[in-house]
Amino acid sequence: xxxxxxxxxxxxxxxxxxxxxxxxxxxxxxxxxxxxxxxxxxxxxxxxxxxxxxxxxxxxxxxxxxxxxxxxxxxxxxxxxxxxxxxxxxxxxxxxxxxxxxxxxxxxxxxxxxxxxxxxxxxxxxxxxxxxxxxxxxxxxxxxxxxxxxxxxxxxxxxxxxxxxxxxxxxxxxxxxxxxxxxxxxxxxxxxxxxxxxxxxxxxxxxxxxxxxxxxxxxxxxxxxxxxxxxxxxxxxxxxxxxxxxxxxxxxxxxxxxxxxxxxxxxxxxxxxxxxxxxxxxxxxxxxxxxxxxxxxxxxxxxxxxxxxxxxxxx
Length: 315
What we know:
7 helices, disordered N terminus, alpha+beta, 315 residues, 4-stranded antiparallel sheet, 8-stranded antiparallel sheet
């Protein structure tokens, strides 16, 4: 079966995708059955024991000289940012800004940390790494909302030279021997999270042969992807309120939206066979759908139509 297309929603496929709404991106990717590529943090953690330390966000902050400590050690000043030290499955759950000693006293809990409150653009960067050296990087900038949610992400065509130099230096000093993809989240050109995978929310914007290059990276340990012209894209997110149940739209409705001019793909981002309470979601919203669009207005219009389907106010 070497070189076969193995894209089932199970735990045997080489490109391991746990979210069925994202299998669409890997349907035409040939991957040898003995090459395993993570798109999920649990797999990235298990398959990379020498580098799994990056999932410890306290160590990530310490590696950059940022003020930080576990809960139980009082911050010397406020505000600070508080979050779980480990969070492999749960998006922004448990993350918040603490503005005073009184807020900190109420928020203190085992397994959490505080760190310097960084302000500025929240950037998600996918990085191809060979032998602990950065070979390719692409950035996505998020427009954050309250409570750990995002309104939309802009897949940038432009480089970010300051951030790229910082990431390259950090990778070379901290990721010796690593070959594979990294996803680095940063604010104000400082790293807040590192994932041993790429972001599987928008691979349709990286180019038609990009996933082939990823497979080659893991199978041969080399990176060969031409720096082709880059186009801007948008990943527009729909959140609904908690404490209610949702049903998936009919597939023809989803297909019709996906075929529109300016739309790249549509994801319905929850499991139809699970209650809402069984999903890990940010505190301020239940993620229902993502529309990847080349045209921002087309993406926003599609999101509004999906919102009406789910019985919530159009966004």
